[in-house]
Specification:
This protein has 2 helices and no strands. By secondary structure, it is an all-alpha fold.
Length: about 90
């Protein structure tokens, strides 16, 4: 039996909340780093760490999503092949 998968849509409020929380957290972290009572090289080190962390998080999220979508497509292709094979070799034909 074929499985019907409903597409997943995100509401506009969810997208706004996601972007707002990302922007607010990155702004607050940057403000905190800039106002630390330490030397400039320590602030730079923490800033670079923040940039690398954000970049790798975005890359990991994209990779995870792409892999999940690839597994769904592969599963559908395999299911179609099995159904075709069963239809071709039906014993009542």
């Amino acid at each position: 039996m074929a499985r019907i998968k409903m597409p997943q849509y995100h509401s506009s409020l969810w997208l706004i909340q996601s972007w707002a929380s990302f922007t607010l957290s990155l702004t607050a972290l940057s403000f905190g780093i800039l106002n630390l009572p330490v030397d400039a090289w320590v602030k730079g080190y923490m800033g670079m760490g923040t940039l690398f962390t954000v970049g790798s998080t975005l890359g990991l999220a994209k990779t995870s999503r792409d892999r999940f979508e690839e597994e769904q497509i592969t599963a559908r292709i395999d299911e179609a092949k099995v159904e075709k094979l069963l239809a071709e070799h039906h014993p009542m034909k």
